[in-house]
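Fold it.
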Amino acid sequence: MEQTAGGEDEQSLLGDLLSVSGAFEGSEDIAVARDLARTFLTDVQAVHGLPVSGRAMGMVQLVVSELVTNARKYAPGPCLLTLEISGGAIEVTVWDSNPTPPVILAPNPTRIGQHGLEIVMAVGQSFAIHREPVGKRITAAIVLADDPGGDLAGRQL
């Protein structure tokens, strides 16, 4: 794993925006990517006083794991994970070098495997795929604090 200049602990504070990034090259780095997310969210709560629910902590690690796993499986070279806090949510973005967007399969409870993006889309507040001059960028947003109204994903029903 490679880190942005300044190392794993470097975070930028631009208004209410906090972020951290890391580059990952091997499948063994998937656990390191989850650790980066957990450490970042722990710091967001402890250092910056932003609420982070246990659910958000788990969901962000799940989303990071799924997106980094897909990037490592389907794209050559490293992938870049960026975590950004903005407006009460965390945006998990993974860039990889493969310009082909992933195939998003319809939910099918009898299908074995290939449920990663289905899960990411179900637990997130938003999901987007963007083509880049080189590769693509996939972003999912997760609400940091549980909604007291009971909608844990933070979506309007």
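DSSP finds three helices and seven strands in the chain.
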